[in-house]
Amino acid sequence: MIESKVLSPALGVEFTGVTDPLDDSFVHRCAEALKWRGVLLVRGLHLDDERQLAFSRRLGEVVALNGQEIFPISINPEKSRTAKYLKGAFFWHLDGTTDDVPVKATTLTAREVAMTGGGTDFASTYAAYEALPEKDRERYASLRVVHSFEAAQRLVNPDPGEQELAAWRTQRTHEVSLVWRRRDGRRSLVTGATADHVVGMDPGDSRALLEELLDWTTQERFRHTHDWAVGDLVVWDNTGILHRALPYDENSQRLLHRTTVVGDEAFA
């Protein structure tokens, strides 16, 4: 029998007793968990790539990057060609903030884990919005924020050379509402490492506001930390859950396999 328990008051569900992740009733429970709890965990499921893809496709269309549906996550250059840029994952972020429609969900399966560090933090931007004082809801309601790849990469390398900076700036920027008015009536916050500046605001005031908001959103009461073990499956709602990797050694064997599910709700 499949049983579940919450991971923290603000977010997350852990399922136990899962023998067939493709079972219709389990997939339905996963979809509900993603909508209302944001993160789901099944420990020791040991999905291979084929089964991880099959499960992901039950949640929606899988993104293929350069024809690749399974994406290796590692900061070890021997394991990942994008290891350099993945260091940006050590900072709180949502994926796809520079796209019109962000990815809906992400799945990760642990193939190898770090000896020390390498966990993943999650924070609910739904819960953070719901807990905002009314004066702050009014303050943020009409603000718009420009998101950029450059903003996230400057956290990794604050003093880039001209060539690197030019490469960052080939990536598109995107202006979105700070408060995302969701089609189901809920509200979430669009923030994180890619948040470059608040439109029309003094740069210093803009940076102070964005840092204040991120500190609010990532309070411990809105968070959960997952410590990986080989075989774990974690899935999260990328549209409402900030995430970040916790530091680990670059030469670590840590390797996660990721799929991403195509989004179906544009930023508003």
From TrEMBL:
Give the protein's cofactors.
Answer: Fe(2+)
User: Which terms are listed as keywords in the entry?
Assistant: Dioxygenase, Iron, Metal-binding, Oxidoreductase
Gene Ontology MF: a single term: dioxygenase activity
Keyword Iron tagged: yes
Q: Name one Pfam family in it.
A: TauD
Q: Where is the TauD/TfdA-like domain?
A: 7-260
Report whether tRNA-binding shows up as a keyword of the record.
Answer: no
Q: Which PANTHER family match?
A: ALPHA-KETOGLUTARATE-DEPENDENT XANTHINE DIOXYGENASE XAN1 (PTHR43779:SF2), DIOXYGENASE RV0097-RELATED (PTHR43779)
What is the protein's name according to its record? Alpha-ketoglutarate-dependent taurine dioxygenase
The organism encoding this protein is Streptomyces achromogenes
